[in-house]
Amino acid sequence: MTRNFIACDRDQELLLPPDLRDWLPENHLAWFVLEAVEEMDLYAFYRPYNVDGVGRPAHEPRMMVALLLYAYCRGQRSARVIERECIEDVAFRVIAANQRPDHTTIARFRQRHQDAIAGLFGEVLTCLLYTSHSPSTRWPR
Asked: CA-based Rg of the chain, rounded to a whole angstrom?
């Protein structure tokens, strides 16, 4: 007699859907953070970078800001933990667009832009005030 099991094939090409938008439900906190960051003025984060294209490419500041804000919302402040979450946690992978900034890059970005990051929290609170959803009931943890 044969048994009926769902196949478990880890050698397949893709274990997750190929489209990042399919990885999380539409009401997930990660989508709110990404939408909020899209609305923010991030000039202060872009200003210090060279426009001549010289040097090693940096991670997109908009992605790094979203990554830090989401991590802070989840109670994560450690750059090493954030780095690990970009590998292990689906929501962090979506926010980082499946990139993996290392802990040094995260810590240096935070240090380089500490004043600009502090200014963002007012914008985040304003954004929350203008949404009709309560964060405690809208987003799963």
From this structure: 18
Q: Where are the alpha helices (DSSP H) in the chain?
A: 29-39, 43-46, 61-73, 79-88, 90-95, 103-112, 114-129, 135-138
- The residue-averaged pLDDT of 97-112 equals 94
The whole-angstrom separation of Cα 45 and Cα 61 is 6
Cα–Cα distance between 110 and 8 in angstroms, integer? 40
Contacts of 140 (CB under 8 A, 6+ apart): 25, 28, 29
Predicted confidence (pLDDT) per residue in 33-70, tens digit: 999 899 888 999 988 887 777 777 889 999 999 999 99
Residue 65, number of CB atoms within 10 A of its CB:
22
